[in-house]
Amino acid sequence: MANTTSSVQRLRRVYVWEKPVRMYHWLNATVILVLIATGFYIANPIVINSNREASDLFLMGWVRTIHFIAAYIFLFNFIFRIYWGFVGNKYARWKTFIPTNKGFFKEMWQVFKIDILMLKGKEHMAVGHNAMAGFIYFFTFLAFLVQCITGFGLYASMSTNWWLPKLFGWVPAAFGGDAYLRSVHHWTMWFFIIFVVIHVYLVFYHDYVEGRGEMSSMGGGWKFIEEEEFKKSEEADAKPK
User: Fold this and answer.
1) In the predicted model, is pLDDT for residue 134 greater than 80?
2) How far is the CA of 6 from the CAs of 2, 3, 90, 193, 226, in angstroms?
3) What Rg, from alpha-carbon coordinates, does the chain have?
């Protein structure tokens, strides 16, 4: 019988995603879906024939209210994530998302070749986000910022009771009016739709290829990392940048 023990790899259980990161992720995913659904309705409302008074139905009013509530949750959740990027563990920090050295770009190219071009080669086994994922997430944070500015810019003229939306009263003029502002807000929404599709695909893809518990890690926070790969990651983090 052939000796197969040399091919067996020891796995280390690593706590990667802290509870605040997981809560942010799932709350963000939920409110984005709500914002997309209600945003589509607000842009192109469904005609409902009814004998009741429109004021009794108040369908558009409820959809807008849900959209605004979700927008507030989205804003404060985003602000929290910005804060956690400074105080969280090394897998949640901003250096994971922003290129700071040549190694970051080298890793991005390696991941791009395997994930996008489907070329043969050694899969980059990152413990947290790989460089490509981190860089793309950085652009999603910029898109979050655009949505907050444009959304509250559209809402500023309608709000009369709270000071927060009034802070964005300058936005419509900066974008050349509400029509242009609404277009930017709408097309940025499509960025999120495309991102969600690609994100879900790649999560399933990496979970299948790497077998590290990629999907379950965003539920419990833990991944199973090969001992050798974990040591390499620790040594790379210990090196001066």
Assistant:
1) yes
2) 11, 7, 32, 45, 14
3) 22
Alpha helices, DSSP H, located in the chain: 19-43, 54-57, 59-87, 102-115, 131-156, 163-166, 171-174, 178-210, 214-220, 227-238
The pLDDT tens digits of the residues spanning 9-24 come to 788 889 999 999 999 9
Are 96 and 128 spatial neighbours (Cβ–Cβ below 8 Å)?
Answer: yes
Mean pLDDT of 122-134: 79
**Tokens describing residue 239:** 């090196």
For 169, which DSSP code?
A: T
Cα(98)–Cα(112) distance, integer angstroms: 17
CA 139: distance to chain centroid?
A: 9
Distance (Å, whole) CA 104 – CA 96? 9
Write down the domain spans for the chain: 97-226
Q: What pTM was estimated for this model as a whole? A: 0.84
**What phi and psi, each to the nearest 5 degrees, are found at residue 124?**
-80, 120
Rounded to whole angstroms, the Cα distance separating 165 from 152 reads 6
